[in-house]
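Structure ticket #2291
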Amino acid sequence: MLSKFRRVQGEKGFTLIELLIVIAIIGILAAIAIPQFSAYKDRAYRSDVKANLHNAFLSCKAYWADEGSAASCTSAAIAAAAYGFVASTGVTITDGGTLTEAGYTATGVHASDTNPVTYTIDATGAITP
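Resolution: structure written out below.
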């Protein structure tokens, strides 16, 4: 037992320079990773807005099938239980223009996006920034 203790007592640990090098490498990796993570989050927020706009458009299509293409499809109308559209948390969908099937437009933006991009969907279902 005493021989094991003497052997451990003679061993040495890491030097201060080795520890500083490891900390510097971790700092460099963090400086690269954090901005990339922010960019990934922004892309996810923008994808969420596009998905919500597409879902609102599909709900409006169902609304027009029931009510006729001349009826105005508003966010309140498609939030009803029959159509079930509910925007994701942080996503704001705004009705725009004439809300009939021929002239439908809506815009959407995410509140958590660091550089908010407003997307618009038109009557054909095309989404543009």
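Closing remark: The two ends are 73 Å apart (CA to CA).
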